[in-house]
Amino acid sequence: MAVTQKTGWGKKVSFGLFLFVGFANAGALIGHTLKTPIQPAHINYPPVGDYSSYTVTVNPNGSYSVDYKGHDPTVLDSEQYVDTSNGVFGVGGRTTTTRTRQYVPGTPSEGTEEGKSDARSEECIKAEGGGESNGALVGSSLATGLAVPAVAGIPYIGWLASGWAVMLGSDMGSAVGGEVARTIKGC
What are the b/e assignments for 147-172, b being 16+ CB within 10 Å? Predict the structure, then answer.
């Protein structure tokens, strides 16, 4: 039998290949971590209706441009005057003015919008507020006089039921008082 001498080249080559692959993977991981990611562009899209459109062009570097084509229609105003007699025995008549605004497609706008056409007048708002206040006072007084004595005798929760009755009377009186004030004022 012949004795062969082991030179150790296999172990050296395996160890060198192991080091090469390890350093290559570590370099790839470090390079991937340090690379800045490309953020997509955040675009604020304009409002689009029946007569408007937009085109967005996005560049690879993240910049973008928006071409917006809007449509501003012509405004048609009309006013309507109505004389009414309201209140008790027809006393307290009011003249009501109704303003409407219509938009016509296909033509440019003239003028600016002055206010909402469906807004209630200040006079009606004050009348309704006063009516609600007085109605709440009357409703809570009626509930205190009529409902509280009936529910106060309930064991353990009589005091709580009394409070509920007063609050319910106040809310109902407020709703009725506001409606009556609006009717009398003609709103």
Answer: bbeebeeeeeeeeebbeebbeebbbb
How far apart CA 143 and CA 176 sit, in angstroms, is 14
Is 20 exposed, middle or buried, given 0-12, 13-18 or 19+ CB atoms closer than 10 A? exposed
How many Å apart are CA 40 and CA 119, to the nearest integer? 44
How many Cβ atoms are within 10 Å of 142's Cβ, its own excluded?
Answer: 15
| Rounded CA separation 70/48 (Å) | 8
Instruction: Give the global pTM.
Output: 0.38
Give, for all 187 residues of the chain, the pLDDT tens digit. 455 556 677 788 888 888 888 888 888 888 777 777 666 666 777 777 766 777 888 777 767 787 777 664 555 666 776 666 665 566 666 666 777 766 665 554 444 444 443 456 788 888 888 999 999 999 999 999 998 888 888 888 888 999 999 999 999 999 999 888 888 887 7
Q: List the chain domain ranges.
A: 120-187
Report the alpha-carbon distance of residue 60 to residue 62 in Å, rounded: 5
CA dihedral 97, 102, 108, 112 (to 10 degrees): 30
